């Protein structure tokens, strides 16, 4: 198993390729998200406030002012804990305040204490404490909407789609609004496990009292969106007919109708639904955007431009929206209107990086490689800088100009010293993708010789050594990093985990010491928690390993942690729990090689019904 990177994208680069033939496909992955974000921010009251209020959103005022008072049931120890928590909150130490209130909530089983702990943790932006406090709050007050909403947001943030949906449906069943349709939109866009989500939605709708719940129509709309994405258009249309009978004046209905129609490529129906929604909610920019999308798909480009111009005019020519709409036209394969949208930005004092990037993509799609390169090179340091260089280099390679691509990246390294490491890693990755590993290794070795303390390059080379089975080379590079940066948590964790995973004789205590040092630097990082659990398991202490792995899996429910946790449960004689864990995970995805490897060693853990 590969040592897990604990810094998301900091040293391991994943650049997308942009070629003329793949322009639309590549833009689709980013353009719609940018459009959606811009429209979401501009839509004001039309957007659900609950979806905006994510688990890490900042408070602008002290939430403790409105937190429920603590008034009864205190002994000396409890009073001391609460006084300490209260004083910590008053001096702005919200972490200590939250821990104190949470301890009191465990002691007294009082929901108000857990609520107060959550408020304090949230104001201090303490992720692990927010989740722990919200879990205790929900445990003590199962009908409370706020903890479920927080937990749903956390689950979605870490990619646990089914748990997030479960929290939202709990809110609906308690009479609240779970934003299930908005969740479904995100699920479709992010390629979530739609079949499993659909099963969960249908199970809810099959309950005898489901249609009596206040926000039943929101669940119907979510189900219609998922069914349409799964190709079950007839059922989706039936759901929409149900909602129309319940609330024909609902703008959300027409929003979903337009999106479902776009999904099934009934662009005329999408056009009508978007217009109907716009009539009901003339200030909701989402309908203008959907109408423009429908017109583009119908090849009514002039009509689409009327809509997008109206949208821009209504928002004072908003620059971010202009860029997002240009991306939309490009994604739909219409570079000319995209270029017209971008032209007013050229010549301004501070042209956004994205404008140059998009102009480069437009020029590239027209086959003008050299002028496209000029646009990409005008992208300054900051957002889009690395994407522009990656796209330009890939463009040159696809034009059979590998030497030009490498010369371009070499010059850019000299021009932008701040991005030296990232540009070297980009060139290494491009060479690897062309099966020129020898040249890639030579480049990396040469640049490390010039900059022997560059920890990013050393870490990349360490991972390449690991992939080639050269554990000694990997360790040498990681040790070099630690000589330069003794507290580098990523290097500590990678080396410690590798020693533990390989179960090298006489080196497990060393692995534990390395991982403990990584934990001191990154105590809330799930990759480090996973490593800690795994090294304790290797040391023959499954009881100690269990709590670490459970904490890791709560934050990062991926297959590697799942396999580790299942193996520890098996060692503790809890095979049924291990089997259930694996079954739940295997239902989410068809690709799980690490779990497959575990089942080869422990066939008795194979879930029933698994081929």
UniProtKB/TrEMBL annotation:
GO terms for biological process: cilium assembly; protein localization to cilium. One of its GO terms (cellular component) is ciliary basal body. Keywords: Repeat, TPR repeat. It holds the Pfam family TPR_16. PANTHER family: BARDET-BIEDL SYNDROME 4 PROTEIN, PTHR44186. This is Uncharacterized protein.
């Amino acid at each position: 198993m590969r040592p897990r990177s604990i810094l998301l994208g900091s040293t391991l680069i994943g650049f997308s390729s942009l070629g003329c033939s793949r322009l639309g496909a590549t833009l689709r992955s980013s353009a719609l998200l940018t459009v959606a974000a811009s429209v979401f921010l501009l839509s004001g009251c039309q957007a659900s406030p609950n979806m905006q209020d994510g688990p890490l959103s900042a408070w602008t005022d002290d939430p403790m002012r409105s937190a429920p008072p603590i008034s009864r049931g205190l002994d000396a120890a409890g009073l001391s804990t609460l006084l300490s928590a209260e004083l910590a909150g008053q001096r702005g130490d919200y972490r200590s305040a939250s821990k104190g209130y949470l301890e009191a909530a465990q002691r007294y089983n009082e929901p108000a204490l857990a609520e107060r702990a959550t408020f304090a943790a949230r104001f201090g932006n303490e992720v692990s404490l927010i989740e722990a406090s919200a879990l205790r709050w929900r445990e003590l007050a199962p009908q409370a909407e706020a903890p479920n909403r927080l937990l749903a947001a956390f689950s979605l943030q870490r990619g646990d789609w089914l748990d997030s949906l479960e929290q939202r449906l709990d809110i609906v069943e308690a009479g609240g609004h779970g934003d299930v349709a908005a969740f479904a939109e995100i699920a479709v866009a992010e390629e979530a496990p739609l079949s499993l989500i659909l099963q969960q939605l249908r199970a809810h709708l099959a309950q005898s009292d489901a249609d009596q719940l206040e926000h039943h129509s929101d669940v119907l709309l979510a189900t219609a969106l998922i069914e349409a994405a799964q190709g079950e258009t007839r059922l989706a249309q039936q759901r929409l007919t149900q909602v129309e009978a319940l609330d024909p004046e609902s703008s959300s209905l027409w929003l979903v109708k337009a999106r479902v129609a776009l999904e099934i490529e009934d662009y005329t129906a999408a056009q009508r639904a978007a217009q109907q929604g716009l009539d009901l909610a003339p200030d909701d920019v989402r309908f203008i955007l959907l109408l423009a999308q429908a017109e583009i798909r119908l090849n009514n480009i002039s009509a689409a431009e009327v809509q997008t111009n109206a949208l821009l005019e209504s928002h004072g020519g908003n620059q971010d929206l202009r860029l997002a709409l240009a991306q939309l036209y490009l994604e739909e394969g219409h570079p000319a209107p995209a270029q017209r949208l971008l032209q007013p930005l050229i010549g301004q004092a501070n042209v956004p990086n994205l404008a140059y990037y998009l102009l480069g993509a437009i020029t590239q799609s027209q086959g003008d490689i050299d002028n496209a390169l000029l646009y990409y090179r005008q992208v300054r340091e900051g957002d889009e800088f690395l994407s522009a260089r990656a796209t330009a280099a890939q463009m040159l390679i696809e034009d059979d100009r590998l030497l030009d691509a490498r010369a371009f990246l070499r010059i850019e390294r000299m021009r932008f010293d701040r991005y030296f490491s990232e540009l070297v890693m980009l060139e290494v990755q491009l060479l690897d993708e062309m099966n020129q590993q020898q040249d890639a290794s030579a480049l990396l070795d040469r640049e490390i010789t010039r900059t022997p303390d560059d920890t990013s390059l050393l870490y990349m080379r360490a991972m390449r050594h690991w992939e080639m089975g050269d554990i000694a080379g990997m360790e040498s590079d990681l040790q070099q990093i630690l000589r330069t940066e003794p507290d580098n948590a990523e290097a500590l964790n990678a080396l410690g985990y590798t020693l533990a995973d390989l179960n090298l004789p006489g080196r497990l205590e060393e692995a534990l010491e390395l991982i403990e040092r990584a934990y001191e630097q990154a105590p809330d990082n799930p990759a480090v928690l996973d490593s800690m659990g795994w090294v304790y398991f290797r040391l023959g202490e499954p009881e100690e390993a269990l709590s670490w792995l459970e904490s890791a899996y709560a934050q990062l429910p991926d297959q590697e942690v799942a396999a580790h946790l299942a193996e520890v449960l098996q060692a503790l004689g809890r095979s049924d729990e291990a089997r259930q864990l694996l079954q739940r995970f295997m239902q989410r995805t068809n690709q799980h090689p690490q779990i497959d490897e575990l089942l080869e060693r422990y066939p008795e853990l194979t879930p029933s019904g698994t081929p």
